Amino acid sequence: MKATLNLLSFKMSTVIEDANKRANEATESLKRAEEELREWKVANQPLDTLHPTFIYLSGEVTACRAVLAGAQRNYDNTLALQNTILSPQSSNTSISCKSQSISGRCSTGRHTDRNKGMQKIFRKNLVNRDTQCIATGETEGLVGAHIIPLNKSELIARDMLFSPRNGVLLRKDLEDDYDRHKWIFDYDGKVTVLFSIWGHKNSISHVKVSKDPDTGPSKELIDLHNKMAWEQKQHYCPHCWKYVGAINVENHMAGSCEAIDKLGDSNDDVENFVLYSSM
């Protein structure tokens, strides 16, 4: 049975690679068509929208967009099919994970054997789109971060799990902290820090969120991630990020939180906690 599933997984990975290749080719074709149209418009001012060349080039752009949309749907449907076919493997293929969420559950999707192939393609698509860490601009040590993690897969359509619309490219340590809800960002790129002594709180205030209409991150998924983060925060100490329960947070901060000593004499973080909790 295991050998059969492994063979099926290999074959599905090949199909996914092909679907991904077609989507990438469609993306490149669209870029070329858009560039040709831009160049013609610049060279032919004032613009005559009834000019035969303009009509032809505009038609090429429209056609390329349609092809890309179809290729992306095919890719997403192929991923959904693999999820459906290989789902019985999920309970038997978990491997050790050093990047677990606070609850002890792996939520990135990088750490199960059956998802390795899909995660590789997922990351490749994000590299093609984002090209660098959206928070720091670095190009090394990057991972594909899921906006809605796989352990919350019931919240979104199956074909969205490994879609680029459910991901961003981040440096590994930032992805781990994002997964733990220590920091979040909105659709416009504004960063909010939920863990008061997060090491990057003074250096990262904005991220570059792609606005690509076909592959850019979904605003709805970003909003959903942030909603879950705010709900979780009410149960964690903002200074040590220890689960203490919503009704015990203030008592924990006042008495047993060892991280408070690291904050010095400033009350800014405590004030920020009160502000965050009231939102």
Report on this structure.
With 279 residues, the chain is mainly α. 47% of the residues lie in helices and 6% in strands. The chain has 2 domains: 1-86; 102-233, no CATH class. The longest helix is centred in the first third of the chain and has 42 residues, at 2-43. It is elongated, with a radius of gyration of 22 Å. The N and C termini lie far apart (51 Å).
Give unreliable regions as ranges: 88-114, 263-279
* Fraction of residues in β-strands: 5-15%
Total count of helical runs of at least 4 residues: 7
Structural class: mainly alpha
The biggest sheet amounts to: 2 strands, antiparallel
Strand arrangement in the largest pleated sheet = 1-2
- How far apart lie the N and C ends? 51 Å
Series of secondary-structure elements, N-terminal to C-terminal: HHHEEHEEHHH
Tell me the number of strands.
4
- State the shape: elongated
State the helical fraction: 40-55%
Nearest-integer average pLDDT? 76
Q: How many distinct folded domains? A: 2
What radius of gyration results from the CA coordinates? 22 Å
Give a nutshell description of this structure.
Helix content is 47%, strand content 6%. With 279 residues, the chain is mainly α.
